[in-house]
Amino acid sequence: MDRTTPSVTLRGAMADRIELFERRNRLRIVALVFLATLNYIVAVVMAAITIGIGIALAILFYGGDVFSDTDAFVVFAIGLALVAVGSAAIGILVGLFRFPFLRHRLERRVLTETGARIVTADEHTEARNLLEGLSIASGLPPPRVAVIDDPAPNSFGVGTRPSNTVVGITTGLGERLSRDELEAVLAYEVSRIRSWDVALSSWTVALTSGAISAVDDPEGDNLLKAVLGFVPRRLAESLQVWALRDQGAERDRVAVQFTRNPAALISALEKLDADASTIRHVSRATAPLWLEFPAHVLGPSPSRATRRLARELLLDERIDLVRELAGQPPRPVTR
Length: 335
Hints:
alpha+beta; 6% strand; elongated; disordered N terminus
């Protein structure tokens, strides 16, 4: 058996670690859906209250006498409270119907954003064959393969269930890596699918990307979006950090055991880290899906939550741990 191919049945420490990681990721998905619902309710209630206060201020500005006595103020306060409660109820109902659509739209959004396309049976046969063999060996249906015409070597996984995922690779990944290194990277992605790490990352992006992207959208009233979207965006960013905390280290531990060729994986990750090119089309909202977190999406003044997430996922912070897990010495310090 080739040393880079996992055994058909995952046994021992590797199986135990993947099982623990999978269980943790499943539990986080459940908690994530609950917390994202609360975040959505907060956004709806804030918008409703802001509109109510805006109406009251408009009446006062145009010469109204809505607060001429205490009773009128009490009536307004009660009305505002009822608006908040009603908005919360509407937020719950809309959220319950909205989240399934967000999940289904995520794949299309990522493919559209990156310009990726699903390959046909006679295209990129080497990557497809490697990915198919690794998937079957781990007991998974082979994921679909998407290719992004981009010279930056990188890959992503997207899909809210292991049985329905897409692995995207850039053209630069195939051009810069050897066959063993490419197989190690694809094995890394398969280990993420097998452990529900791709599912957790996908759910996280699906449930938080709307709030994160809304403020950055160039269309519409930027001031209004900044006011109404500030708190929901910060909550969404914090939710991403909470859901993906320690994920980089854990997925690396699983991948080192799964690939059975950690030297090729380390070599591939070091090539990705050393390469100065960046993915051309990627947003802050979808950045956690990528193997190498695209640091350029952080912008000039990222929030504290975003900086923390970057520290968790940036390759530069993780390669020494991967080398340690593989029993190799740390990288030499360059001056």
